[in-house]
Design brief:
Keywords: Hydrolase, Metal-binding, Pyruvate. GO terms for molecular function: acetylpyruvate hydrolase activity; fumarylpyruvate hydrolase activity; metal ion binding. It holds the Pfam family FAA_hydrolase. The structure is a single chain. The protein is globular. The strands form five sheets. It has a six-stranded mixed sheet. It has a five-stranded mixed sheet with strand order 6-18-17-13-14, with no helix packed on it. The protein has a three-stranded antiparallel sheet with strand order 10-7-16. It is built from five helices and 18 strands. Strand 1 and strand 2 form a beta hairpin. About 15% of the residues lie in helices and about 30% in strands. The protein has one domain: Fumarylacetoacetate hydrolase, domain 2 (Alpha-Beta Complex), CATH 3.90.850.
């Protein structure tokens, strides 16, 4: 079979300690999955069912990259997140079995054009322009669960130019990784290569060109980018 145009390059994430790469199919993101962040966004943190949005796979940005400040925004925010990489697919996955579907973990930053996101939210429109833009998904190398296990607690943090902005623990997730996978797989058939950005703690804020952003999750990895 031939294609009528040249197909796009396969989006892929780095794998710690390997030259091999993890092919990425879809990027799912969980909204408001830390109570303190829900409050700072003016929302009730009660434990309602999680909700999801997506980023395109080619929004991935490698660790250490220089990231262009995106167009049409004056309020670009950082959101540090634990990321789960799916290695075995399925639908209606039981919570008790969910971790068997996780290949590994990384650390991501959900870059957000907050002004566009809030304008869309207030009009009842999708968040795509605020969340799913080019270069909006920086990601560290992925670490296999066979090596690091399945972290359920550990510091998650982010700094801008050395100043701590976000500082919490992944144990504070409203919906844990197994619960998130169970809920998400009831809505979509998960496929090997899917990534799940699991939500961000409180402390999100604006950045400007020239800022250096660093963060990490204890027991997994660190991440850094520079805005240009």
């Amino acid at each position: 079979m031939a294609y009528v145009i040249e197909p796009a390059e396969q989006a892929a994430a780095a794998v710690a300690g390997s030259e091999d790469r993890f092919p990425v199919r879809r990027i799912y993101c969980v909204g408001r999955n830390y109570a303190a962040h829900a409050r700072e966004m003016g929302k009730d943190p009660d434990r309602e069912p999680p909700f999801f949005f997506m980023k395109p796979a080619d929004a991935l940005v490698a660790n250490g990259a220089a990231v262009p400040y995106p167009p049409e925004t004056a309020n670009l925010h950082h959101e540090i997140e634990l990321v789960a990489a799916i290695g075995r697919g399925g639908c209606n996955i039981a919570e008790a079995d969910a971790l068997d579907h996780v290949w590994g973990y990384g650390v991501g930053i959900d870059l957000t054009r907050r002004d566009l996101q809030l304008a869309a939210r207030d009009k009842g429109r999708p968040w795509d322009t605020g969340k799913g833009f080019d270069h909006s998904a920086p990601l560290s190398a992925l670490h296999p669960a066979s090596v690091i296990g399945h972290p359920s607690r550990g510091r998650i943090w982010l700094s801008v130019n050395g100043e701590i902005r976000q500082d919490a623990d992944i144990a504070d997730l409203i919906w844990s990784v197994p619960e998130t996978i169970a809920c998400l797989s009831a809505l979509f058939t998960l496929v090997p290569g899917d990534l799940i950005y699991t939500g961000t703690p409180a402390g999100v804020g604006a950045m400007v060109r020239g800022d250096r952003i660093e963060g990490g999750v204890d027991g997994i990895d660190g991440i850094s980018i520079t805005l240009i």
